[in-house]
Amino acid sequence: MPPELPAGLFAIAHRAGNEPARLAEAVAAGARVVEADLWLHRGHIEVRHTKTAGPLPILWDRWELRPGWGPRLRLPELLELAPAHILLHLDLKGWDDRLGPAVRQAMAALAPGRPYLVSAQRWSLLAPFEAAEEALVVHSIGSARRFERLAGKLGGRRAAAVAIHRELLTPERAERLHALSGAVLTWPVNDPALLGPLAALGVRGVISDSLAIVRAVAPAGAAG
């Protein structure tokens, strides 16, 4: 069945699906939507935000280095760990065009009928999900140039949802996005003082690293 976004303003626990401990913490905090980053590496769908370093056994992200020779979380394990009531937000990473079809096929085989969000800044990765009833496609916008390309990319269609970097989200752009999509999400939102102004712009979902934000917008009794 098609996924339904939580009513009212809701939080997406950013990167919480990338590590079992963080996933458990987000669920305990009352998260209804949990984001995980997916990469295709050597034929496997890996769940991580860090990048590989070619043939070197290193994972990196900005100023962070991690050993790459240990076990890595994969999509089947994520699906086992995430409770059924959690709406997973799968953010597709990298430039490998095989990732989209691989994730679509894996979700159909491993979790048939389970609703999920799927996003990418490389919009071609989203094409396999357009006909998937259980997937809500989110076009991510990380630059002003990509924002200007959205209407042309949609070609008159209305997007189910869009996600835009908070620094790009002006009132004028918010108005344009509402005309082009059913829901506007934004990231990063780690300061509770931002919730009111963003709600005033009509933002539905805030993508946050902060469990305080998750708790602030979680419905009463959701935690645990």
Automatic annotation (TrEMBL):
Superkingdom of origin organism: Bacteria
A GO BP annotation: lipid metabolic process
Listed GO MF terms: phosphoric diester hydrolase activity
Name this polypeptide is given: Glycerophosphoryl diester phosphodiesterase
